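Re: [help] complex structure
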Amino acid sequence: MTVVYLVTLALLAVGAAAALYRLGKGPTTLDRAVSLDVITSLAMCGAGAYAAVHGDYSDVPILLVLSLLGFVGTVSLARHFPEGDQ
Amino acid sequence: MSVLDVAAAVCLLLGALLALTAGWGMVRFRATLDRMHVATKPQVLCVLLVLLAMWLRNPTWAAAGPLLIVAVAQIITVSVASYVVARADYRRSGADPGPS
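Output below.
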C-alpha cells in the first residue's frame, strides 16, 4: 500500500506541476481560475489518498471545505471577469 | 492484502492517472474552453475514485455518509463552476469562439 501511495502522490504532483505551469503562463484570468480549480481538486485527491492508505478518516471535512473553496474561488473570479479583458 | 485493498489501490492509481491527464491537458490544449473541458472531467472522476478507494478501505455505512456528501458537493460545484467559466469565456470571445 505504501508503494501505491507513493506512486499516487507522484502522479498527483506531476499533474499539479502541469496545472501550476498553466497558472503562471495562462493568457487570461479564466485559465488561471481553471488551473487553480484543478490544483484544489488535486489537493483533495492527495488528502483522500492519505486517508485511504493510513485509514485516518479525520480529514473528510477538509475535502468538503476544499471542494466548496474551489467553487467559490472559481465562480467569483469568473463572475467578476471584465468583458474584453485579455 | 484483501480483495478490497487491491480494489482500493486500483481506484487510487486510476484517480492519479486521471489527475495526470488533467495536468497534461492543461499544458497541451490551446483554448480556454478546451482547457476547461479537459479539466472538469478528471476533477469529478478523480475525486470520486479516491472517495471510492476511501470507502473500500473502510466499507461501512458510517464511513459512506460523509464521503457521499463530499461526492455530491464536488459534482455540483465542479459542474456549476465550469458552466460559469465557460459562459465568461464565451462572452469574452464573442459569438464565434475560435481557437485562440
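The first helix of chain B runs from residue 3 to 28.
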